[in-house]
Design the sequence.
């Protein structure tokens, strides 16, 4: 009799965890759908500007990276598109100890156009004379992350694993390098070999990026429980997260694709 009771109790616990996970997954996916349909508008309640297109009227920047890159520049009329076209390939939440939660999504085509300046040098050998139009696109960025939730009342993750793959990159920056032959060679090199170079850089820096990301994520989510998050992004609180005073869901004609 005790064995039957223990077995029944075990089934109840497993069923409850599975139901909670399913509710969490559904709430997050519904939230992403609602967010995606509003990404062409600013969303004040989250402090977000319009994200697709994401636009910057003017910004200045500078970089000095230990004798490798040293330049100052600016962008004007910067416009980035494609962020709301993400496709969720896989998404699973589990709070079962030692089991991994996952998210996997693809950005089919992300592109930007801008007027730019870039004055400085690469390794103090190649002079940058950038001044003109700039455009680039990245084809099929696929991002995958998996993690294990820490045990406890408040959220925390450990053993974060990140994977990023890119199908193709193409850039065109007018007058980037003073010497025309070097400028043409640089663009050809980046457009032909950028995927391989990025993959090598990712393998080299992957572990440190994962550690940094895990620390930042835990610093943010550590103040919430899973129920808090579901309540915030679902309809289990004071009502739907997007109400009549929020931006309309008119940015897309289709819905998110789930494979």
Sequence:
């Amino acid at each position: 009799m005790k064995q039957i009771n223990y077995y029944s109790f075990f089934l109840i616990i497993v069923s409850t965890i599975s139901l909670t996970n399913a509710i969490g997954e559904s709430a997050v996916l519904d939230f992403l759908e609602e967010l995606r349909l509003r990404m062409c508008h600013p969303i004040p309640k989250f402090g977000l500007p319009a994200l697709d297109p994401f636009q910057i009227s003017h910004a200045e920047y500078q970089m000095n990276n230990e004798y490798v890159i040293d330049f100052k520049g600016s962008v004007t009329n910067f416009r980035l598109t494609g962020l709301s076209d993400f496709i969720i390939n896989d998404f699973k939440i589990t709070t079962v100890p030692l089991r991994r939660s996952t998210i996997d999504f693809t950005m089919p085509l992300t592109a930007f156009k801008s007027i730019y300046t870039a004055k400085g040098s690469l390794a103090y050998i190649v002079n940058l004379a950038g001044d003109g139009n700039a455009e680039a696109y990245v084809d099929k960025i696929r991002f995958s992350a998996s993690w294990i939730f820490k045990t406890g009342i408040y959220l925390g993750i450990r053993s974060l694993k990140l994977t990023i793959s890119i199908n193709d990159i193409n850039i065109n920056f007018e007058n980037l390098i003073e010497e025309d032959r070097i400028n043409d060679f640089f663009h050809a090199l980046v457009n032909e070999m950028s995927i391989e170079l990025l993959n090598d850089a990712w393998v080299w820096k992957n572990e440190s990026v994962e550690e940094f990301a895990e620390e930042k994520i835990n610093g943010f989510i550590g103040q919430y429980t899973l129920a808090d998050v579901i309540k915030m992004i679902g309809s289990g609180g004071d009502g739907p997260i997007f109400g009549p005073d929020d931006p309309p869901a008119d940015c897309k004609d289709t819905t998110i694709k789930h494979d």
Confidence is low (pLDDT under 50) at residues 1-20, 255-259.
